[in-house]
C-alpha cells in the first residue's frame, strides 16, 4: 500500500522559491553579454568630434597700399618733391573715379642717407616717404587704379600690398560656420551608429580661431609700368573649425 504524506506549507514555499531562482539564473545565462560587460570597460556616454566648413565670396572692394619714396640732396628738396609726387598720385586716382574719402594718408618719414666707404660715413642726401591707402570699388578695377597711381608717381612710387575685402563677410562667415557644425554632427552620428548607440543632445561646442577670410593675393610683380596689369581678384575664403561634444543614448 502506498502512503502519501502531505508537505507542510513552508516546504512548498521553499520549493517554489528555489524553482524561480533556478529559472532566473538560466535566463541570465542565456542573455547576450555586451562588449562593455565582456571587457569590463564602461560604455562611453559622450563622443567628441571636430568639423570643418568653408564658404567663399567674390571681393567687393580692395585696399591698395602704396608708398611715395623720394631722395634729394637737401631736406627741403626731399620734402617738396615727396609732397608734389603724392599730390600728383592722389589727383590721378581721384580723376579715375576714386572718392577723396577713400584715399587716406598714412605714415610719413624723413631721414638722412649715408654712404659707408672705407669705414667712414658720408652724408649723401635725405629720403622722404609718404604711405597712402586707396580703397578701390569695385575690386575688379584694382589693377587699373594701381597702374594710374604708379604712372603718376613714376620712379618714386611703390606698391606695398593689395588686400581684398568683402562687405558682407558676416553672412559668408555664417555659411562656413553652418557647414562646420553639420560636418561635426554627421561625424558624431556615424560614431554613435558604429557603437550601436543613439545620438542625443549637444553638450558643448567650441569654435577655433581661424582668423578672417583670406584671398589669393595679386602678386606685386604684376604691377609693372609699361604694360597692362591683369585684374586677378580671386575669391575670399572663410574657414571655420568647431569641436562638438555630444551625449550618447
Describe the SSE topology.
Layout: H1 9-30, H2 35-39, E1 46-57, E2 61-72, H3 75-95, E3 103-117, E4 120-136, H4 142-153, E5 157-165, H5 169-194, E6 199-207, E7 214-215, E8 236-248
Antiparallel strand pairs: 1-8, 2-4, 2-5, 3-4, 6-8, 7-8
Helix pairs in contact: 3-4
The average pLDDT score comes to 79
Order of helices and strands: HHEEHEEHEHEEE
Strand percent estimate: 35-45%
Gross morphology: elongated
How would you describe what is shown here?
The protein has 249 residues and is of the alpha+beta class. It folds into 2 domains: 46-57 and 169-248, Protein of unknown function (DUF541), domain 1 (Translation Initiation Factor IF3), CATH 3.30.110.170; 62-165, Protein of unknown function (DUF541), domain 2 (Alpha-Beta Plaits, 2-Layer Sandwich), CATH 3.30.70.2970. The protein has 5 helices and 8 strands; from the N terminus they run ααββαββαβαβββ. It has helices at residues 9-30, 35-39, 75-95, 142-153, 169-194; strands at 46-57, 61-72, 103-117, 120-136, 157-165, 199-207, 214-215, 236-248. Strands 1, 6, 7 and 8 form a 4-stranded antiparallel β-sheet that branches. The relative contact order is 0.21. Residues 1-7, 9-37 and 214-226 have low confidence and may be disordered.
Amino acid at each position: 500500500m502506498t502512503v502519501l504524506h502531505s508537505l507542510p506549507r513552508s516546504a512548498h514555499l521553499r520549493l517554489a522559491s528555489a524553482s524561480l531562482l533556478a529559472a532566473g539564473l538560466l535566463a541570465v545565462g542565456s542573455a547576450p553579454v555586451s562588449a562593455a560587460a565582456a571587457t569590463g570597460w564602461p560604455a562611453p556616454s559622450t563622443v567628441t568630434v571636430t568639423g570643418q566648413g568653408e564658404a567663399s565670396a567674390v571681393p567687393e572692394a580692395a585696399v591698395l597700399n602704396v608708398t611715395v619714396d623720394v631722395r634729394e640732396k637737401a631736406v627741403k628738396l626731399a620734402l617738396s618733391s615727396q609732397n608734389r609726387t603724392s599730390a600728383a598720385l592722389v589727383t590721378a586716382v581721384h580723376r579715375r573715379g576714386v572718392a577723396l574719402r577713400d584715399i587716406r594718408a598714412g605714415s610719413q618719414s624723413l631721414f638722412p642717407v649715408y654712404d659707408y666707404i672705407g669705414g667712414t660715413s658720408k652724408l649723401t642726401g635725405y629720403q622722404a616717404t609718404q604711405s597712402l591707402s586707396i580703397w578701390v570699388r569695385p575690386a575688379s578695377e584694382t589693377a587699373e587704379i594701381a597702374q594710374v597711381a604708379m604712372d603718376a608717381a613714376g620712379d618714386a612710387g611703390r606698391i606695398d600690398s593689395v588686400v581684398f575685402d568683402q562687405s558682407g563677410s558676416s553672412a559668408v562667415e555664417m555659411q562656413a560656420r553652418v557647414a562646420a557644425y553639420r560636418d561635426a554632427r554627421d561625424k558624431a552620428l556615424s560614431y554613435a551608429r558604429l557603437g550601436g548607440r543613439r545620438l542625443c543632445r549637444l553638450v558643448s561646442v567650441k569654435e577655433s580661431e581661424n582668423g578672417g577670410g583670406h584671398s589669393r593675393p595679386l602678386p606685386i610683380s604684376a604691377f609693372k609700368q609699361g604694360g597692362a596689369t591683369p585684374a586677378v581678384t580671386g575669391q575670399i575664403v572663410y574657414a571655420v573649425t568647431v569641436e562638438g561634444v555630444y551625449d550618447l543614448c
